[in-house]
Amino acid sequence: MKRIKILLITAAAIFVLSLAFCFWIIRPAQTNTVEIVQDGTTLYRFDLNNTENQQIEISYNGKVNTVLIENGKICITNADCPDNTCVHMGWLTAEGLPIVCLPNRLVIQYIQSGEADAAG
Question: Does the predicted TM-score (pTM) go above 0.85?
Fold first, then answer.
């Protein structure tokens, strides 16, 4: 009986820690600075608080991704890739979850303000 109680307490502790970790991963961004990186090269860096609404087309090997910045948010609205996973990801909302288009080697992610200052 003691063994079952210990196993239940251990399982509950693991569940609670896993849940806390998930909430930590998807927490809102601490910064509004994003960068658009393609094939390892930073193409754009924006502070979403100070960026006007705009649409950017980024091409790679004849294929195009359309990035939309609107009301302090960013997303990919159209992509010339087979699965459109990047389009379905919606608006970038959390530091831990970038928008990624693998076929076009494109990543949109939040960066810490210190990283932006160090880059220029």
Answer: no
Which H, E and C letters describe the chain, residue by residue? CHHHHHHHHHHHHHHHHHHHHHHHHCCECCCCEEEEEECCEEEEEEEHHHCCCEEEEEEECCEEEEEEEECCEEEEEEECCCCCHHHHCCCCCECCCCEEECCCCEEEEECCHHHHHHHC
pLDDT digits (tens, 9 = 90+) for 78-103: 999 889 999 999 999 876 689 999 99
Strands across the sheet with 63-70, in order?
Answer: 54-60, 63-70, 73-79
Provide the CATH number for the domain around residue 100.
2.60.320.10
81 part of a folded domain: yes
Residues 6+ apart with CB under 8 A from 2: none
**Which residue range forms the structural domain that includes residue 93?**
33-110
pLDDT at 119: 45
In a domain, 117, yes or no: no
